Amino acid sequence: xxxxxxxxxxxxxxxxxxxxxxxxxxxxxxxxxxxxxxxxxxxxxxxxxxxxxxxxxxxxxxxxxxxxxxxxxxxxxxxxxxxxxxxxxxxxxxxxxxxxxxxxxxxxxxxxxxxxxxxxxxxxxxxxxxxxxxxxxxxxxxxxxxxxxxxxxxxxxxxxxxxxxxxxxxxxxxxxxxxxxxxxxxxxxxxxxxxxxxxxxxxxxxxxxxxxxxxxxxxxxxxxxxxxxxxxxxxxxxxxxxxxxxxxxxxxxxxxxxxxxxxxxxxxxxxxxxxxxxxxxxxxxxxxxxxxxxxxxxxxxxxxxxxxxxxxxxxxxxxxxxxxxxxxxxxxxxxxxxxxxxxxxxxxxxxxxxxxxxxxxxxxxxxxxxxxxxxxxxxxxxxxxxxxxxxxxxxxxxxxxxxxxxxxxxxxxxxxxxxxxxxxxxxxxxxxxxxxxxxxxxxxxxxxxxxxxxxxxxxxxxxxxxxxxxxxxxxxxxxxxxxxxxxxxxxxxxxxxxxxxxxxxxxxxxxxxxxxxxxxxxxxxxxxxxxxxxxxxxxxxxxxxxxxxxxxxxxxxxxxxxxxxxxxxxxxxxxxxxxxxxx
Length: 583
Fold this sequence. Notes:
The protein is α/β, with parallel strands linked by helices. It has helices spanning about 15-25, 60-70, 80-100, 140-155, 215-225, 250-255, 270, 280-295, 315-320, 325-330, 395-415, 430-440, 445-460, 470-485, 500-525, 540-545; strands spanning about 1-10, 30-35, 50, 115-120, 125-130, 155-160, 160-170, 170-180, 185-195, 230, 235-240, 260, 305-310, 340-350, 355, 360-365, 370-375, 380-385, 465, 530-535, 545-550, 560-565. It starts with a strand and ends in a 17-residue tail after the last strand. It is an enzyme of class 1 (oxidoreductase).
């Protein structure tokens, strides 16, 4: 099957839907490909809110938000991106309101705002109410709102299609190839501009808040073309996931007054962040929790969790503003936040790195400003480097909206200016060969077994705390798993709804993402943001204030090549911080 559109969006989460909507506003034909029905996309799991300096509850300014974003990113954030974001998100939130998103309200009828970890007033002096929210279902409401707007705008959707290849030739993207789950057929999508917005790759870890579909497909495909992935070593562990399950417990639960307690009932964050305690940035809270567990103050049968305490809060706050997580705790743990302490542990949550882009979403081909013509990216899959070394809470939803909008706008603008480029000869070849190899393999290795070994080893060796020997071991483990993956076969020969075939394909993508991540982390010999090395405890701006660019060497058995890209600086440095630096 063959399809042709001016702009093609891959992914129907918040970034993809915003990009599609704004591309459609540009008077071009738009289609959106999604693994899932759009409103089931992973953006729907985002609970806490969108940070924007509206000032509805307390005085706030975009400059303060920009500073918190840069500081939260441990100064690896590109500050031009942080400035654009902190300004644009204010207008974007009001735009969502006008589209019909049902934000929670203040008594005066304004959009309600609450405190969130790392958000401060007056450049770090105290916490500030900046998170705009819809109870604890903010992401779900964004999806519903944007999907309705896309239906209204005439966007064409291809649901349950899995993209298997990017058609890039002579430095220009000409479309994609996708597998239709319902028919088992490969489809060619010819486009003037393609926007990648298919989410992260958190399934490489054993304990994760990420949905089963987040396997880094498009990151891997981009990487296989010899193109770079940026800052893959920086992966955020959210401090509060439901114990054993990884299901996200929103940071809003601490914004509303939740307290972290160890096995002794102690409010331990007073020891690690005496100023803002439980509202410290996520990397600090995650490391603090793991330290408590390591030192024998964990809870549960395995002593590998801590408690979040809401019992001092009014029932109407818990069951009103935090309704979703209250229901999840009751359902999956049998713990009622109204009267019980709830067991939580850090969970792999968010990729700061990904496909490098400029401020307009255009995909970069190197660290010197080269680009792939006609190819854009937005959301967690992209790395405009808004988040630097550690994303500030609420900035994920803001990122989707601001940079999804910019990618859609500029992709449509580009599509209006160019003609369709010719497709490569036999565009289905690589995808067909991949599927044929999986179907024809008689190998004894099982994809599920390899996936389990990958997830457990990544959690152990490239998790919250890292060191050289563990990561060197993980490089070897990944090489071994990739060799075994060549012998993976599928027992189901059918083409339609072959989930075994899809999972085998996704495992290959996950192995690529894990390879780029581990090699980048081993190479960065410092601790910064979410990248915490026990053998290099200090942050080293003299040598490591730069972005990592990981490439697959297509001429040398796929070895990882590490390059670099400069950080865009614009006024904020550590010297700007209030002294002493205490969270």
